[in-house]
Amino acid sequence: MVTIAALALSRRRYPLSPLSYMLIFVFLCLHAVGSHYTYAEVPYNQWSKRLFGTPLNSLLGWQRNNFDRAVHFSYGLLLVYPVRELVLRIIGVRGFWGYFVPLDLMISTSALYELIEWATARLVGGGLGIAYLGTQGDIWDAHKDMALASFGALLTITATACLHSWKGVRFRSTWRTR
Questions:
Q1: What is the C-alpha to C-alpha distance for residues 108 and 102, in angstroms, rounded to an integer?
Q2: Where are the domains of the chain?
């Protein structure tokens, strides 16, 4: 709700493209599903079995519920483009920095989230802290979450750069612009 209010209030001063609003909406929908079921218990396997006759985990050889990992990947994949639009408008960077700064922001905020999540789990402590983390027994969970968010952001920013290169008349000159 806070994100929707912030987007509504900033719409006049920092309007985003319809694509950015759609990407943010899809990401918020994933969060709504995750918060409804808790991320570690989203029943995507049952949904997959109903739709395709086989659980998704069986198809992909997974042992755990990976909905939280999909959301971390989606964080980078879906939000780096709107972040790029804001960076271009607010900071005014161009060229290489117009691609690097949004990528760096997504990687940094992903790491910051994992640190906050860890600190909260330590503060709460015990079984409730472990349940909050949702690691499902994976000691490398935070590292994998950050890597997935980074990879998702890298995919989108690379696709954006390639599309701009393909469509842009003066891409090489803008790449070098500060």
A1: 10
A2: 2-176
